[in-house]
Amino acid sequence: MKTLVIASGNAGKLREFNQLLAPLGIDVRPQAEFNVPEAEEPHITFVENALAKARHASRITGQPALADDSGICVDALGGAPGVFSARFAGEPRSDARNNEKLLADMQGQTNRAAHYYCVLVLVRHADDPQPIIAEGAWHGEILSEPRGEGGFGYDPLVLDPSQGKTVAELPHDIKNRISHRGKAMAALLEKLKLYPL
Ligand SMILES: O=c1nc[nH]c2c1ncn2[C@H]1C[C@H](O)[C@@H](COP(=O)(O)OP(=O)(O)OP(=O)(O)O)O1
Ligand SMILES: [Mg+2]
């Protein structure tokens, strides 16, 4: 069985990576199992932050590592919170306070369009000159109150109009099939066929 270090400390992401990869016979190991501390995410693009996180975990573990940098990009807010989604309401980071701030900033807005965006980066080793990079997006709308108990992060506020449900109301297998992360993972797995681990 192939082992892959997941360069994330986000429990919601880790759960989804396990759901996506365990059925493929990939042994998914959170970086915390190797005592990898949280990486810096100093960049203004998702891809740079994801690469930084993957390298950091691979450097410390000596193993291949997969990182995810993602966020919610809201049209009426000029794409914010975007790459700063995790820190939208400042420190200490909190999904509840981030969601409250998003609701407040969207008060009175009629344009509710938004998309989730995810970049995945896989490095075979810390100095890998050919990182595997894949992206995915998922378009929806920001509601004016939360709905649903599933998922994590901004999910209770994000409606998928084609499903008639918020992301937090979707069964996880459906989220994983249609989400920004699920689509990025499908693309990453295609690329991995060319350059296996
Ligand atoms: O499917 C999702 N459902 C709900 N919220 C989501 C999703 N995907 C990203 N998000 C939000 C969570 C966080 O506010 C930000 C990611 O920030 P991001 O830096 O990539 O992750 P993080 O700091 O939580 O964990 P880590 O960097 O250790 O992977 O976007
Ligand atoms: Mg982060």
Produce the secondary structure layout.
Elements: E1 2-6, H1 11-21, E2 26-30, H2 46-61, E3 65-74, H3 95-105, E4 113-123, E5 132-142, E6 158-160, E7 165-166, H4 172-178, H5 180-194
Parallel strand pairs: 1-2, 1-3
Antiparallel strand pairs: 3-4, 4-5, 5-6, 6-7
The structure holds 2'-deoxyinosine 5'-triphosphate (Y43) and magnesium ion (MG).
Magnesium ion is lined by residues 41, 86.
Active site: 69 (proton acceptor)
Catalytic activity: dITP + H2O = dIMP + diphosphate + H(+); XTP + H2O = XMP + diphosphate + H(+); ITP + H2O = IMP + diphosphate + H(+)
Pfam family, one: Ham1p_like
What's the short story on this structure?
The protein has about 200 residues and is an alpha/beta fold. Helix content is about 30%, strand content about 25%.
Walk me through the structure.
With 197 residues, this protein is α/β, with parallel strands linked by helices. It has a single domain, classed as Maf protein (Alpha-Beta Complex), CATH 3.90.950.10. The chain contains 5 helices and 7 strands; from the N terminus they run βαβαβαββββαα. It has helices spanning 11-21, 46-61, 95-105, 172-178, 180-194; strands at 2-6, 26-30, 65-74, 113-123, 132-142, 158-160, 165-166. The protein has a 7-stranded mixed sheet with strand order 2-1-3-4-5-6-7. It is globular. The termini are close together. The model has no long low-confidence stretch (mean pLDDT 97). Residues 8-10, 13, 41, 53, 68-72, 85-86, 98, 116, 151-155, 167, 179, 181 line the site of 2'-deoxyinosine 5'-triphosphate.
